[in-house]
Design a protein that fits this description.
There is one protein chain. The chain is mainly alpha-helical. It has one domain (12-435): Glycosyltransferase (Alpha/alpha barrel). 45% of the residues lie in helices and 5% in strands. The chain has 16 helices and 10 strands. It has helices at residues 12-26, 44-55, 59-70, 124-134, 138-166, 191-195, 208-211, 220-235, 240-246, 254-273, 277-293, 326-329, 336-343, 372-380, 388-405, 425-435, and strands at 42-43, 90-92, 114-115, 251-252, 298-299, 304-305, 307-309, 315-316, 410-411, 418-419. The strands form 4 sheets. Strands 1-2-3 form a 3-stranded antiparallel β-sheet. A 3-stranded antiparallel β-sheet has the order 4-7-8, covered by helices on one side. It starts with 11 loop residues before the first helix and ends with a helix. Bound molecules: (2R)-2,3-dihydroxypropanoic acid. (2R)-2,3-dihydroxypropanoic acid (DGY) binds at residues 89, 180, 185, 208. The site of (2R)-2,3-dihydroxypropanoic acid has 4 residues, from loops.
Length: 438
């Protein structure tokens, strides 16, 4: 691998200390900001990844991250009651005016804490299972089991929300209704379905480009549409039936589908440990349904699963890293061969969109840059199996990049430059848990 000379090389223990300090600096008392300024609240999937990092030096704090997150879970008394188990992508525990759209933009003023009205990839059951596996001493295992007894029933409600509200017909493929919900905000895969979404005409002021150069963030046309979709949810009274019927943006996102699939298997395994046999069986039935239905998302062209427009039925035929989560999800066509091919095309690990494919942009948010937590999930899908060496290769390229650049939000796959927010929690956590060895 070619490493430009000007990169700083940190010794790994020194870097581990910086990683711990990053989490401590972003701690707001029970929850972790992704990074100060740019993302000043608790984010859903960031929280699950951050907890992995905390586990390596402060296990009670790691478990606390989930309890704080689940304070934001909607119940039967919230917003019409049809969304029991809904877990928003942002929980606004405290106010901040450094982010748009903040707590006053979502129509959730009646809630405490206030939240957004869209979710995010439901990876928590998998994170909890990894945390249990990493809790090896009898004391650590006892602590883990105590927390799991509280957290697993909450996660069962959350998974039930996904299947009930986002796949009411039981097709096996949940629907997502907002690009921010995918966590992979402006992936080129969303360009076609977003074209059908009207641009908002109401005024709003973005904050993200005050923190990060506009060339690394989504353009205005994207924001005009995601703001429209946010307001649409509120006008629909957060009614899941109405949203699934009328929302102008409905997509079968292969990222959410793969992450939910893996998490449901891990949640079923956690249920086994807690003698919760009915929910475990029900989860396994959902998993079998998805296993069959996902074949409809196979791309012959890119030899991987891709997303699909749930309104038109058209494949969104873009090779994104979400499609490399097939082995992680346990889908019958795994992702090892395609991942191996991708690794030959860049010096710095797996980009979010395949290099030189339509829509690839090396430095713009989710259109090309490398995200280390995604690399970790993809690699974990190969670990311990016939493609274990591939997991090692992804790990090696990721480690070298972090040792040279530190904990950026994302990285240019062609030059290795650190991009987006700096001092970023999930990148630091990924280093501690996966790359530094805990
Ligand atoms: C943002 O504001 O860019 C976030 O990714 C939305 O969750």
């Amino acid at each position: 691998m070619f490493i430009p000379k000007e990169f700083t090389v940190y010794a790994s223990e020194e870097l581990a200390e910086k990683a711990r300090q990053t989490l401590k600096d972003n701690d707001r008392g029970g929850y972790t900001l992704p990074t100060d300024g740019l993302y000043p609240f608790q984010w859903n999937w960031d929280a699950g990844i951050s907890a992995l990092g905390w586990l390596t030096f402060d296990p009670p704090r790691a478990w606390q991250e989930f309890h704080t997150l689940f304070k934001g879970m909607w119940g039967t008394a919230d917003a019409g009651g049809a969304n029991d188990g809904f877990l928003a992508h942002i929980i606004f525990h405290k106010d901040s005016d450094s982010y748009f759209p903040g707590p006053d933009q979502w129509g959730t003023e009646a809630l405490s804490p206030r939240t957004s009205s869209i979710s995010q990839p439901p990876l928590h059951a998998t994170m909890l299972r990894w945390m249990l596996e990493a809790s090896r001493s009898p004391e650590a295992r006892q602590l883990a089991m105590e927390h799991l007894r509280v957290l697993v029933p909450q996660l069962l409600r959350h998974h039930a929300w996904w299947y009930r509200c986002r796949d009411p017909q039981g097709s096996g493929l949940v629907v997502n209704i907002h690009p921010w919900e995918t966590g992979m905000d402006n992936s080129p895969a969303w360009d076609v379905p977003l074209r059908k979404v009207p641009e908002t005409t109401r005024p709003y002021v973005r904050q993200d480009t005050r923190h990060v150069d506009a060339s690394m963030r989504p353009p205005k046309a994207f924001y005009d549409r995601v703001v429209y979709l946010m307001d649409f949810n509120q006008q629909a009274g957060f009614d899941p039936d109405r949203i699934l019927r009328d929302c102008p943006y409905r997509v079968h996102d292969i990222g959410i589908i793969s992450i939910l699939q893996r998490a449901s298997q891990d949640l079923a395994a956690l249920c086994d440990l807690l003698d919760l046999s009915d929910p475990a069986q029900q989860l396994r039935r959902q998993v079998a349904r998805t296993q069959a239905a996902v074949e409809g998302l196979w791309s012959q062209r890119w030899q991987q699963y891709v997303s699909r427009d749930a309104i038109t039925g058209e494949l969104l035929d873009h090779p994104t890293s979400a499609g490399l989560l097939a082995s992680y999800a346990g889908f019958s066509r795994g992702s090892a061969d395609t991942t191996r091919q991708w690794l030959t095309e860049t010096a710095y690990g797996l980009p979010s969109t395949r290099v030189n494919s339509p829509g690839f942009e090396a430095r713009r948010y989710w259109r090309g840059p490398v995200w280390q937590h995604i690399n970790m999930l993809i690699a974990k899908g190969f670990e311990g199996g016939p493609d274990d060496a591939l997991a090692g290769q992804i790990q090696q390229s990721s480690r070298e990049l972090l040792q040279r650049q530190g904990f950026h939000e994302y990285f240019d796959p062609l030059t290795g430059d650190g991009l987006g927010g700096a001092h970023f929690s999930w990148t630091a956590a990924t280093y501690l848990f996966w790359l530094h060895g805990g």
